[in-house]
Specification:
This protein has 449 residues and is mostly helical. Helices cover 63% and strands 9% of the residues. Residues 1-13, 251-309 and 402-449 have low confidence and may be disordered.
Length: 449
């Protein structure tokens, strides 16, 4: 172990007892029985030495793919000017947050997870927890704004949308404010000031002071930045789904019949259906485009008022499905790390169970940053057309039906060929068009017969 001169009583009283336990655990984890160690050099954790290469590879793939894919996502939104829609502006803000995670947070976090002693100085010791949590809070708050904006838009499409730029700036400022108390609970101790030894000069440790108020603060952070936002997002998505179900209702048609003949036959018990039946014979005797039909408009004038939805319901349903999947995926991946943080407040890490903590943290941190790769992939699926998806499924043999092209003839009741069309398995559009052509031909032949 490291040998040094004894500290004075006043210096010993400055260090709390649990700090001495941390120092003892550090020396055991780094040196073990070796009495000649240099803590001024990085020492990998002994519990992770066997799998260190695998961990570096897994985190490296996560970092490179996450950064590159989010850069392409950002460029795609800028190139096609999708940012004019607030939904894509929030997605772009999430991409910026993921790039920040991959470029800054993940490399430093990986270094801290693999190295036993602290080698990054006092500044990073104070601000590293803030850097780790700011992009996580930004992503969650961005999803809250996105869900809120879509709920307002689906309720009233004519109502102005949320100002995306102001909301994105607000997410970053709010996240910074939420992590400001972190430096109060971070302790950076320079061992060279307590041990008069050349071997410990410049050696320091960085620990979190888990006091009672720190535990309350961490529980509050869990509620404010994870549980509360998820509850709000769930509420907004449920409201948005109800609005889509309302807009998906069939169009309401108001039929008003005005005419001398129909007005004379209408009584208190007459209905719109009776008006249609009363004039049906007149319309059957004349063609749709004949002069008689235009003259009859003066006697029986019909007005249709169709109240159609101002929304593209199918497009909004598709958007809602993919946004819900992205938020759900992010919440599931982040949940283990959030639970681990709460459990860490009650569990005491010792030299005996430190290896279990190390493996758990490595796995849960990797899962928490996994959405940086999954979100761009889900965005690509969101933007792809159905034909492109079916073609991709055919390439990778994901479809249960084989791709085949064939020509078939639809035969009508009269025995005459109606139309020829191709059945392309996986392409529902061509199948429906072919069936509609066959139906029309069947009706025409039956009328002619």
């Amino acid at each position: 172990m490291v040998k040094g001169n004894a500290t004075s009583p006043s210096q010993e009283s400055d260090i709390p007892p649990h700090i001495w336990a941390v120092i003892h655990q550090l020396l055991l984890g780094v040196g073990g029985a070796d009495k000649k160690i240099d803590l001024r050099e990085p020492h990998p954790k002994k519990s992770l030495e066997d799998v260190a290469s695998f961990i570096i590879c897994a985190y490296g793939v996560l970092t490179v793919y996450g950064v590159v894919s989010n850069i392409f996502l950002f460029v795609h939104i800028i190139q096609y000017r999708l940012y004019k829609d607030p939904t894509y502006s929030f997605i772009m803000n999430n991409a910026i947050s993921d790039i920040f995670k991959g470029v800054i947070v993940l490399p430093i976090t990986l270094y801290v997870l693999l190295v036993q002693n602290w080698m990054l100085g006092e500044l990073l010791c104070t601000f590293l927890p803030m850097l780790q949590d700011i992009p996580l809070h930004v992503t969650m708050l961005t999803y809250v704004c996105l869900a809120w904006d879509r709920c307002r838009y689906l309720r009233n499409p004519n109502k102005p949308r949320l100002p995306a730029f102001v909301c994105t700036i607000g997410t970053w400022l709010t996240s910074v404010c939420l992590v400001l108390p972190y430096p109060i609970y971070i302790m950076h101790i320079d061992l060279g000031t307590y041990f008069k030894s050349p071997e410990l000069e410049g050696v320091s440790i960085c620990i979190v002071n888990l006091a009672d108020d720190m535990k309350e603060y961490m529980r509050g952070i869990f509620l404010v930045t994870y549980a509360g936002p998820l509850a709000a997002i769930s509420y907004f998505f449920v409201c948005a789904s109800r609005e889509l179900a309302y807009h998906n209702a069939p169009a309401v048609i108001f039929f008003e019949s005005r005419g001398r003949d129909s007005r004379s036959r209408m009584d208190s018990h007459s209905t719109v259906t009776a008006d249609i039946r009363s004039t049906r014979g007149d319309f059957d005797r004349t063609s749709q485009y004949s002069p008689e039909s235009f003259r009859e408009q003066d006697n029986c004038r019909t007005r249709y008022e169709v109240h159609e939805s101002e929304l593209d319901v199918m497009k909004e349903k598709r958007t809602q499905k993919y946004l819900g999947s992205i938020v759900t995926m992010y919440a599931i991946c982040l949940l283990p790390l959030m639970i681990m943080r709460l459990a860490r407040l009650a569990l005491v890490e010792t030299y005996e169970n430190s290896s279990h903590f190390d493996y758990t943290y490595v796995l849960f941190v990797w899962l928490a940053f996994l959405p940086t790769c999954l979100t761009p992939a889900m965005f690509v699926c969101w933007q792809m057309s159905r034909s492109s998806k079916e073609r991709l499924k055919g390439y990778f043999r994901f479809s249960n039906r084989k791709m085949r092209h064939s020509n078939e003839t639809v035969v009508t009741a009269a025995g005459t060929p109606a139309s020829r069309f191709k059945f392309l398995h996986g392409s529902h559009l061509q199948l429906e068009e072919g069936l509609s052509d066959g139906t029309i031909s069947l009706q025409q032949d039956s009328n002619s017969s």
